[in-house]
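Page 37, top half.
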Amino acid sequence: METKQLQPTESLWHSTAYQVLLRAGARLKPLQQVHAHLIVSGSYRSRALLTKLLTLACTAGSILYTRQLYFSITNPDSFLFNALIRASSKFGFSRDAILFYRRMVTASIPQSNYTFTAVIKACADISALRIGRPIHSHVLVRGYGSDLFVQAALIPFYARSGDVGEAKNVFDRMPARTVIAWNSMISGYEQNGFAKEAVGLFYRMRELGVEFDSATFVSVLSACSQLGALDLGCWVHDYIVDKSFDVNVVLGTSLINMYTRCGNVSKAREVFDEMNDRNVVAWTAMISGYGMHGYGREAIELFRLMRNHGPPPNGITFVAVLSACAHAGLVHEGRKAYARMRQDYSLVPGLEHHVCMVDMLGRAGFLNEAFRYINDLKREEQAPAVWTAMLGACKMHKKLDLGVQVAEHLLAAEPGNPSHYVLLSNVYALAGQMDRVEMVRDMMIRKGLKKRVGYSIIEVDQKSYLFSMGDRSHPETTEIYNYLDELMLRSKEAGYVPAPGSVMHELEEEEREYALRYHSEKLALAFGLMKTTHGLTLRIVKNLRMCEDCHSAIKFISHTANREVLVRDKLRFHHFKNGLCSCQDYW
């Protein structure tokens, strides 16, 4: 069921008034002059001319003028409403599109699939789930529930609004699916953190022989980035090359992000160097990639090239540069970059820049300077994230007194955040004050706070496997645990010593039987070593920061098993090889 859109007649297209409108284009002042001319000449009674004037005003970005024009029109028809809703939705005036839709309903003017696709897109753009659901009901009442265009609009609406289940229901009910529908569902999974499901749907799409487009690859590559699925990412890249797809700036940046987040920085740089068009996002992605791997010098050199030959850096670029300096201990370079923000580019430092500066100074041991930096900030700029970076530095350098002082600021600002209590507990444990550790634990119990559950993902044969601490859900659990026990025994013989403080302050009471040995990244590593051939690099993704004991253990395992291991944790990459880590224990 589809309502045919009425179009201006051919005679109108050739009229003087219409041609004048077209020449005015999407420019506000010329449009206002044309509007005055229409009133003087009497042509303002033409609904088609007014509709064109409205859409051009909206295209020009003047929603206020668009509203004024709309309210001056008596008895607007369906063609005018549909054009107005579509233009408002297309040019970012989502709430106005919804308002015009409601007025259309109130005026009892029948809606069409054109109406619904535009207003549903407007709801999707602002994640307006409570507004969009009743509109979905209107879709069903009006008989457009099986319309492919409306269904294709509903999928991203529900996905962007966080209701992935309903998006999947709409997708499953589609009698035929366009590539747009497939892309919307894959993107919906990926954007809501269901990367594994996104990859699974891509495999299904491939099995059914559905033709891919660039949008498909952008979403799948992002899912690969989340999972650390390098094999699939490489397959996608090979497909793009074999089928001669245009690697535009969006697709190229997606490839850069995939390679850097899956541990292959050199391949990311190849993609970057081959791109014909590199915008600020592409430059920033490559700089950030170097930074997360600890290649601070390379990040600084690329930043220099960007300043000399590329687009002007933005605030996000400076976050990437400062973060790279923090991970590599390049304090002098970081200070210079921070100064350039204001002096050369008139950029005002924001929260993330402050966090990076405190992190950089704190990691390098300049704790007093970092503390002064925070105190020099305005009260509203002293966000919990800034204090968290400071507390992490106190833990790293075992500065108990300052750490407790910093923790007081954190707990006052966010008393319900369990990670702050865990970090304070770590500080006490490293100082050997186990009575204080138990005090913090008791506080968490009284407040009903629990640590965030850690998990690790490893890709084997283009399939991702997830492990949590003490995980026994895998069908080969016994073999994995026995293999890990052997690895740990060989590591002990090579000199590995467990970090005893970790047992006391990083685990809950019921988890202590699995203390240290059965952390998620160790289980993932044991499984990877079991299932892959010698010489293959193992890649693990962890959702939290790797603990001190796992970092030490994996260094020994990389030596005893003679394997290279890459671990991407919450903060950065760790390249383990021959008993050493690329971070040089500076993390």
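Page 37, bottom half:
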Amino acid sequence: MKSGISSDARSMGRVGASPGDRLKESPKKGLKDFAKKLVDSKTFTNKLQDWFSRKRDRSVDGKCPIDESPFHGKFPFESPFQLEELREFDFALEGIGFQQLLRMPSGPDASTSGAVEADAYLALEDFLHAGAQSLWEAFWSKEGPTPFYISCPYGVGSKFHTVEKAIARGKVGGLRGAALVVKNSRNSQGEWDHVAELALMRADAGDRSQESERIPCFADIGEALFYGLYMMLSRSLSKSNMVKYGDCAYVLVVDYQFGGVVRLRGDVNKMDINVNRVYDCAVEWIQQHAEVRVSSFDQIWNKLGNANWGDVGTLQLLLATFYSIVQCKGLPKRSIAELAAEHGTRLQKRRIERRPREVHENGSDSFRRHQNSRTHGEIVEIEDESESAIRKEMEGMKLEPGTVLWLEDSHWQRGFQIHEVLGDERRSLYSSTSLEEPGKLLAVYVGSHPSEFEPAWEDMSMWYQVQRQTKVLNIMKQRGISSKYLPQLVASGRIMHPGPCHRQSPGGRCDHPWCGTPILVTSPVGESVATTVARNGVFNTDEALRCCHDCLSALRSTVSAGIQHGDISPDHVIRMASGERHFYYVLVDWGHAVLEDRDSPAINVQFSSTYALQERKLCPASDVESLVYLLYYLCGGTIPHLESLEAALQWRERSWARRTIQQQLGEVSAVLKAFADYVDSLCGTPYPVDYEIWLRRLNRALHGEDHGKWIDNSAPTGRNDDVAESSGTSGASYS
């Protein structure tokens, strides 16, 4: 949103700071001298002993000294990555080639040989190079060289060298690890503020608890935190800004077989700077202002020295490298979710290739067991027809107007008659009526057919619209969230297909293309504002104010329960008739809603918030920032065709800096312009949105100042609350 992002703002995930905060931001004096004195990792690690002891004692009662004992029992640190996050990353890496040419030495005597130690550093260097290069080409750009190189430090404050130079000088034993360094035409030697990621090489990383994994020990974590802090201090002092977002450092810890990730996050400007007690100050900052996360130490290299690219241990290291590249070069052109979604297409193609195909007289393709013993089990090769077969099968699942669709769950069956096709090639959405209440229109979402593999990845778009949205709407229902501006869950379950069903169990599936297909029924059904604008043109003042008010009411209802929408766009707001000439608006499609910190919002280059584009997470004001972009579009603002995330971020920065959005909204309504100014000052910060005051201002602009009490139908409890206007909340009424 704003140019010249400060380290304070970055550390809090901010893109723009409020006016009061900008006055407080000033560089820390003495930080450079402080960093120069922070040179001994052992002293730093020893100072952390009490903190580690407390963490160990919380997880298990232990009596032996911490430097002699690993963490047994429940590990006291959370992992930087969730299992679902690693699974999605694994799907995204399908088809991406990783090749480590130099093998990692292995064997019980590997750490005792100088020649083997040199080979290990060469293998580590090749591993980091192969990972960074493949990730860059897959997610960012296949054109031109990779903007990183690998170099090795002897310690903090030292120069960086290649492994070959260290071998030639006989100083391999003094190397601390290998670093992924951002290329800089002005300096080819490498500097600490250019380090994107550091991999520490240990003779024996972690403590062996089982044959398949190791538990990170105190010495490993302490040294990783020391180097992570030094990297962050160097970035804070840097004038080159090679690492754009310096509030987080990833440090890999590896030996000749195992490896893990330590992530340190925090604002170094909050550190108490005292050059006479640098280690005490650093440790206090770790304890009070930093977030430390440590992964398990899993196997990276097999006995032949080859990297297990698809295993959990290697995926953790690659994901840390991915996020480190994001810190330096910004978000990729293709997101993890986008590449992971292609898994569904590959899965469908594989299913077609491995099953017999029989063409019926009507020309449609079906997949079933051959009853003829001569052809039983025969695999028929399909050449250049798989994509066509996928399309034909999906077309066979389309529902025509007039079709009666039966839905079943574990308790009952209900029928719905299809009236109109509302979706497109990316989603199966229909309007329908219940056979029990034929007078009320309902929305029917039809998901993708589940296979024997992971059904959630068959078609990510449909999965979010049906299964994920069903979960979100059920949570809203359980928490008592009800509003006329929110969709209501009517029913969910699985389609009952016509004809006999040969499934073997209640939760099983037969060969019919509809069998087991998930379905979601919601209310109400309306026209998207994207369709309204395409047909009628831009919104007038009343329509824009009403849309803003109703969407804010919906967001106010859900945010009280910790739910954010995460995907606000013209396609996800529908217009409903309220009388002959009046309308209200409903915020629909909650499949990408963020329920907890590990959830990722949808990425829309036109309407996602700046923070979502940069961090793939939401700040408290992300949804209202997306709402401002929506209002800008509805009021005639031009959003250009944005081909990349970088272009999207640049457009946002220019638009807010030039006040283009505020000027456009100001031509429609002064209150919308004021709302955009408020959002501009709030976005990217950890501060909550004051929904109440803006709902009052919007309501006054819509109904006039002397309306007395007004009825708000968006209360989270589902009841209508009288909200009296306070004369002290705002100034003169807006028109």
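Margin note: The two ends are 27 Å apart (CA to CA).
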